[in-house]
Amino acid sequence: MKRIYSIVAALLLFCSPSLNAQSEAGAIFLLISPGARAGGMGEAQVAIANDAYASYWNPAGLAFQTGSEIAFMHVNWLPNLADDLYYEFLGFRKTFPTLGTLGGHLIYLNLGEQVRMDEYAQYQGKFTSYMTAVALSYSTKLSPKSSFGMNAKISYQHLVELGTGSEKGKGTSTDFGFDLGYMHKQFLTPKLDLGVTMTNIGPKVSFIDPDQADPQPTNLTLGLAYEIFKNDYNSLKMVYDVDKLLVASYPDMDWDGDGIVGGFDKDGKEAVKNAYYNQNGLLESAHKDRLFKAIFTSWVDDWLLGGDIDRSPAGEESDKKIGGWEWAGDANGNGDRDPEEMINTASEYGAGFGDDNWGVYNEWGQKEVGSAKDRSISDELDKLVHNFGLEYWYSSYFALRTGYYFDKTGKIQNPTFGVGLRFSNYGFDFGYTSGEPGHPLTNTMRFSMNIQF
Fold first, then answer.
1. What is the tally of structural domains in the chain?
2. Containing H/E element for 346?
3. Closest Cα to residue 42, out of 243, 239, 227?
4. Is 178 domain-assigned?
5. pLDDT tens by residue, 14-51
6. Rounded Cα distance, 35 and 107, in Å
7. Domain with 41 in it: what CATH number?
8. Average pLDDT of the segment spanning 302-307
9. What sign does the dihedral 281-287-292-298 (CA atoms) show?
10. Which residues on adjacent β-strands are paired with residue 29?
11. What does the DSSP 8-state code read for residue 264?
C-alpha cells in the first residue's frame, strides 16, 4: 500500500496547476496535459486549440475547425519515479455544417502494480491502480471571430479494491463534471487570439470516507496567442497561459482572535464534541469552501481571509492553541528556532493568551500569533501557474517549439522543447520536458499523432 500512496502523492505534486492541489482537490489526474505539441510549448494551448486536442484544452476551439480528426498520445509518466506509470489520450472531432462541432476525448492513467499490506504490515497480495475519464464536447460560433464550447465528462478512479483494516467501502470514485470554454480570434488586434476556460466543475470527489471528500480541481485559465510574424513560408507564434486553481482551502485557524481553534459548536455554544466553530458560529477547523463560493474566495483565501494559523509539522496534530511558546535564543548556533530552544510561556511565566509574556510561536518554533498579518497578495500571486511557448512553422510541414513551465508554489520550473511534422492528412509531434536531474518530470517524452479525414 505504501507504493500507491507515494505514487499518488507524486502524481498530485507534479500535475498542473499547483503543488497546493495535492491537499486541496481530488481527481488531480484530470490536470495532466495531453498532446506532444502542447508538451513542447510549456503546456500553453488555451488560445490556440486548433486540433482534436481542443476538446481538452479549450472546447471553444473546435468551432473554428472543419472536417474530422482523431488524435492520440502515449507518455511514460514521471519516468524518474517509476517505470510502469503511463498516460494515454484519445481525442476526436467532427464538424456538422448546421449544428456545430462535436468532439470528445478519453484519458487513461495507469498507476502500475501495487503491493497490498494490512494495518499490521502483513502482505495481502497485489493489485493494480488506474484512473480514467471520458468527455463529450460541443462547440459553436457566436460570431465569425468568437466561439463557445463545453464538455460533459465522467471520471473514475480505482486506487484499491478494499480499505485497510476497519475501513469500509472501496478505494474507488466515480464522478461527473463539465468544462466551459470561450475563444475570440483577432482580439483587440488582428494578430492576437484570446482563450478562456473553466474546467472540472462538479461535485466533490470522495473515496472510502465521504466526510473527507475533496473538491474537484476546478481550474480557470486565461490564454493569449500572438503571431509575431508570418509570410508565405515562415511563421512564429508566441503563446502564454496563466492558471488559477479555484479551490479555497483553510488550515486550522483562529478566526475570532481568542487564541484557540474551535471550542464551540455551529450554534456558538461551548462544546467538547464537534467543537469546530468559534463563538460566532464560524468554522475554524481545516475546511474547504464549496465550489460556488470558492470561485470567489479562492482569490483571497491565502491573503485576506481567515486568522492566525495553528501550524504543525507534517504528520503532527495541531494543538488547537495559538502560540504559547517563545524562543530562548540560538543555543546551537544554526540560526533556526529548534524545539529544544523553545520556552513554554504558559508554564514558565503563567501567561495567558493576550498577555505580554504570551509567546508568538508554537513548540516547534513556528510563528502563529500574528501570522494572519504576515500574509499578503504575493501569497495569492505565487499560486498562479505560468506557461510560456514559442512555435515556429516552416510552411505547413515542419515545426520547432520551445516553452517554459513555471509554478513557484509547486517548485516546478521546467523548460520544454518539441518538433512537429505534417504531410498529407497525418501529423506527428514530439515533446520533451527538461529540468534538473532527479526531478520527476525531467526527461518526460510525449509522442502524439493526428489523422484528419
1. 1
2. helix 345-348
3. 239
4. yes
5. 554 443 444 577 888 999 999 999 999 999 999 999 99
6. 12
7. 2.40.160.60
8. 93
9. positive
10. none
11. B
- How many Å apart are CA 30 and CA 155, to the nearest integer? 8
Domain residues for 57?
2-248+383-452
In the predicted structure, residue 262 carries a pLDDT above the cut 60 = yes
The one-letter amino acid at 315: G
Percentage helix, strand, coil, to 5, in the chain? 15, 45, 45
- Grid coordinates standing for 152? 460533459
- Within 10 angstroms of residue 270's Cβ, the number of other Cβ atoms is 9
| 425, part of any domain | yes
CB atoms within 10 A of CB 9: 11
Pairing mode of beta strands 146-160, 123-143:
antiparallel
Mean pLDDT over all residues of the chain? Answer: 89
Q: Answer yes or no: is 164 within a domain.
A: yes
Residue 258 binned pLDDT confidence (cut-offs 50, 70, 90): very high
Contact 342, 325 (CB under 8 A): yes
Average pLDDT over residues 137-150: 96
Q: How far apart are CA 239 and CA 159, in angstroms?
A: 36
Amino acid making up residue 132? T
129 against 155, higher pLDDT: 155
Q: Is residue 318 part of a domain?
A: no
Name which of 368, 377, 358 is nearest 254 in CA terms: 368
| pLDDT higher than 90, residue 450 | yes
Residues 167 and 163: their CA atoms lie apart, in Å, by 5
Q: Look at residue 179 in the predicted model and tell me its pLDDT.
A: 97
Smallest CA-to-CA distance from 47 within 37, 36, 61, 35 is with 61
Q: Per-residue DSSP letters for 226-260? A: EEEEE-SSEEEEEEEEEEEE---EE-SEESSSSSB
Q: Are 226 and 236 in contact (CB under 8 A)?
A: no
Q: 181 with 59: CB under 8 angstroms?
A: yes
Length of the chain: 453
At residue 61, the pLDDT reads 97
| CB neighbourhood size of 129 (10 A) | 22
- The position carrying cell 508570418 is 230
Grid-cell match 513555471, residue found: 406
3-state secondary structure of 295: helix
CA 21, distance to chain mean position in Å, is 4
- Location of C-alpha cell 504531410: 423
**Residue range 305-320: mean pLDDT, rounded:** 88
